[in-house]
Amino acid sequence: MLDQMTAVERFQALAKGEPIDRLPCVPIVGNGAARVIGVKISSLRGNGDLIAKAQIESYKYFKYDIIRIFTDLYQQAEAMGATVYYPEDETAYLQAPAIKELSEIDRLEPADPYRDGNLPAHLEAMKIAVAEVGNEVPVTGAVTGPFTTASFLRGADELIRDMYRAPEAVHRLCELSLETALRYARAMLDAGCAPSLTDPMGSSTVISPRQFQQFAAPYLKRLIDYIHSRGKAVTLHICGKTNKIWEAMAEAGADCLSLDNEIDLEEAKNKIGHRVRLMGNVRPSEVMLEGTVEDVEAAVKKCIRQAYDNPKGYIVASGCSLPTETPFVNITTMMSAVRTYGRFP
Amino acid sequence: MSKQERILGDLAEGVVSMDTDLAVKASREAVEEKIDAYLAINEGLVKGMNEAGRLYEEEEYFVPELLLASDALYAGLEILTPHIVRTKEGEKSKIILGVVQGDTHDIGKNLVKIMLEVGGFEVIDLGRDVPAEAFIDKAKEVNAGMIGLSTLMTTTMPVMKKVVELLEQENLKDKIRVLVGGGPVSPAFAKSIGADGYAENANNAVRVAKSLLAVE
């Protein structure tokens, strides 16, 4: 079952309401791309050439439909002063927030994506990927949402308490994070790359829908409005439980909701599919990491059955980033399953 | 309403309303009025925390509310705990708790710690990024009955399996129960690695822990 269109052609046809050969499919590979070129994840740090090479080779190997230049969620916060720990061969994590006391907010500044942290390297990777394969596959750059970045600047436990104790401080941190995100998005767009948003701390697994409306959504909206003004559609990924914020995500301007395995795609289709494209939600851990190829096929079939007819379109995807050690055969099975069961007559 | 009833009510209200000032005020009053500290804690503060837990299950309260409620709880505990009359009620069961090596997401683990302490366990919190060996070493050192393992990431789940394997190697599997939880963790995974129990959230963790340790 060979593709008859490139990914770019497929998405262009989708946008125009023209026929496509099959549903798009995106196993969200992340740092697993390092496994494709056989390098340690820590070697990607600050190395635009290598990040690009890993993501391009991964795309060429699996032939999925979107390249996402992404190493971890912390790059913007790190560029603003947060301390990130880089294990030798695993995804980085937050070691320490940028500030210990709220009084230190005055010392924080938005980052310059051409100068601070590893942002320049990521931009370089995006430029390379766009030049090499941008004519056949959309190249996106991961942007962490302002509220989530604020949580890395302040510390998650503290920030969520601050929503009650010091809400103005939360807004200040979000404002700073938004400015960084806007600058980063602008630089990406200038490099020919489309920003793709992730805002996990906005999940209802963590905060209430009302808190999402108050603290996360306004900043997402301003960021999305900017990206729209540059002519690009926006995919917004929020992990975990999101049923009660789907409306708010659409209100913020998201064109496509990338949803996790905890939600039901059919329910999403019925509730919000008339407004937004949907993406998701094969289980990254139980199915893609630990499952057999039969499990992968069954999961893909189920997703397709649930959402193939979503009014605004549907992209088969993993519910979240794939674990680094996801077997290659499961990813290729996901693609071949979509090529078989996600075909349009 | 008697004075004692009013104070117990304020203690509970202080916690469930996330009102640290009220919890502190009521705790001081309880001490002044010579209300039994253990009673004040269990029928006051803990009752409020259990109500907060119920609201969390019902999706009225979320993580921020639980954390703030627990802040009020701990503020009250700080005042009341020194006044507990030690009876022969027996030793608390000990649980070693931590986020496994390679992971630092600890909001969930912190909530579990609070709820387990509220539930009457003594929790030794090893923090985050904890190697498998450290859980075993500490459990042996303090004679713990249970190890609680948390992770939010799929990539670090193998560490949980390693903890179970180490226990088996040292013939401690029957003495020390293993309870696992976290975003990507599932009952199926727990079973596949030989863990004794799985809990979906902080509230359930207490219930499962109690049943695993056959504590009433």
CATH homologous superfamily title of the largest domain in chain B: Cobalamin-binding domain
Mean pLDDT of chain A: 96
Question: Could you tell me the radius of gyration of chain B in angstroms?
Answer: 18 Å
Shape of chain A: globular
Q: How many strands, which pairing sense, and closed or not: the largest β-sheet of chain A? A: 8 strands, parallel
Secondary-structure element order of chain A, N to C: HEHHEHEEHEHHHEHEHEHEHHEH
Low-confidence stretches of chain B: none
Number of DSSP strand runs of chain A: 10
Main sheet attributes: strand count, strand direction, barrel closure of chain B: 5 strands, parallel
Q: What gap, in angstroms, lies between the N and C termini of chain A?
A: 13 Å
The appropriate CATH architecture of the largest domain in chain B is 3-Layer(aba) Sandwich
Write down the Rg of chain A. 19 Å
β content of chain B, as a range?
A: 5-15%
- Count up the helices of chain B: 9
Q: Strands across the major sheet of chain A, in which order?
A: 1-10-9-8-7-6-5-2
Overall pLDDT level of chain B: 91
The level 1 CATH classification of the largest domain in chain B is: Alpha Beta
Characteristic terms for this protein:
heterodimer; A: 345 residues; alpha/beta; eight-stranded parallel β-sheet; 47% helix; B: 216 residues; Methyltransferase, Methionine Synthase (B12-binding Domains), Chain A, domain 1; Rossmann fold; five-stranded parallel β-sheet; 9 helices; elongated
